Amino acid sequence: MTAFSAPQPPSRMAPASDRARLDPPAPYPRLVADVGGTHACLGWVLRARGGVADVAQFACDDHASLEAVIEHYLGGRGGPPPAACAIAMATPVVDDRVAMTNRDWSFSVRALRQRLGVDRLVVLNDFAALALALPELSPAEVVAVGGGKPVAGAPQALLGPGTGLGVGALVGPPDAPWALAGEGGHASLSAADEAEERVIGFLRHEFGHASAERALSGSGLVNLYAASCALRGRAAKALQPADVAAHAIDGSDADCRDAVEMFFALLGGVAGNLALTLGARGGVYVGGGIVPRFGDWIGRSRFRQRFEGKGRFSGYLCAIPVWTIRSAGAPALRGANRALEGGASLASVGVQAST
């Protein structure tokens, strides 16, 4: 049996928010995926409440397209083809043509559904998928970074540095929350002191627009390292994000360490702005692949100081809890699976094609 079936009849397609109220839960088995700029993680859901199994991660550089990654995964596991599929993408998802921001992959939702031969395909923003998974996170999958207790039913904010900077939220009643996807990673970065102003000036000189993602991402770590070197009159080495992290952790390079300190300070400022914008008294979650690599550094950094340092509203923010997501269980895959359940969980964050 081949990984892909023959093309199917033309599908109906609509924004997921329009169709979620009309469709029952999608059939099983289900293929779920979380696709970022660096890695693609895929899993299999065999039955209701069965959890995500057969999780596998692939380097995007090793594959020419999303379709190639899916074909490789399905061909390697054997068994029946999927009846439904949900794909979380690190990019805006607004119509049939989906193009990634930090990778040259693009595809048609309608054509992919036909190629897969599934009854239903939902493509949504990756941080919308992660937001849908927030209610399912166990205490063992998160680590608290200050604050008080969450307010039940209040909005929950989500951001996460990885290849880029993702932003999302979960709003509405606990029994039927709505996921929101935004592109807050591309909002302008703001400074809280003169040191941050100098760094942002460097980023503006280098890129024209100093977005939050220019500092709070893998490439952002390198940019902050380069800024530290330039502002001290030193030549920057040709380092990768992993190099900056390693030298900061072992203390072998002062500019790398300064870059990481600045990273957490700026992350705290952006997280505080997001909490104020959304009124996120239900808490703020920090996801993405970068923060967990630094262990408890976020707790020892200026993150919480910058998070709360918003003048007259510092007391408001002081009460808001923050958690870092440290799950090894691919929570975005759980959120992608939840997107196939119908109901009111998707608020204009994706596109759906079905037979």
What does this protein look like?
It is a single chain. This protein has 2 domains: 139 residues, ATPase, nucleotide binding domain (Nucleotidyltransferase, domain 5); 189 residues, Hexokinase, domain 1, CATH 3.40.367.20. The protein is 33% helix and 21% strand. The chain is built from 12 helices and 15 strands. Strands 1-15-8-5-2-3-4 form a 7-stranded mixed β-sheet, sandwiched between helices. It has a 6-stranded mixed β-sheet with strand order 9-14-13-10-11-12, sandwiched between helices. β2 and β3 form a beta hairpin. α5 packs across α6 and α6 crosses α7.
Report a brief summary of the structure.
It contains twelve helices and 15 strands.
How many discrete structural domains? 2
Question: What number is the mean pLDDT?
Answer: 90
Q: What is the terminal separation in angstroms?
A: 22 Å
Number of helices: 12
Strand order of the largest sheet: 1-15-8-5-2-3-4
Quick one: how many beta strands? 15
Beta percentage is 15-25%
Please name the CATH architecture of the largest domain: 3-Layer(aba) Sandwich
The percent of residues in helical segments reads 25-40%
**What sort of overall outline do the alpha carbons produce when their principal axes are compared?**
globular
Structural class: alpha/beta
Name a few traits of the molecule.
355 residues, alpha/beta, Nucleotidyltransferase, domain 5, Hexokinase, domain 1, seven-stranded mixed beta sheet, 12 helices, disordered N terminus
Layout of helices and strands, plus pairs?
Layout: E1 12-15, H1 16-19, E2 30-35, E3 39-45, E4 53-59, H2 66-77, E5 84-89, E6 97-99, E7 106-108, H3 109-116, E8 120-125, H4 126-133, E9 142-144, E10 156-161, E11 165-171, E12 178-182, H5 194-207, H6 218-231, H7 241-250, H8 254-278, E13 284-286, H9 297-300, H10 303-308, H11 314-318, E14 322-325, H12 331-338, E15 350-354
Parallel strand pairs: 2-5, 5-8, 10-13, 13-14
Antiparallel strand pairs: 1-15, 2-3, 3-4, 6-7, 8-15, 9-14, 10-11, 11-12
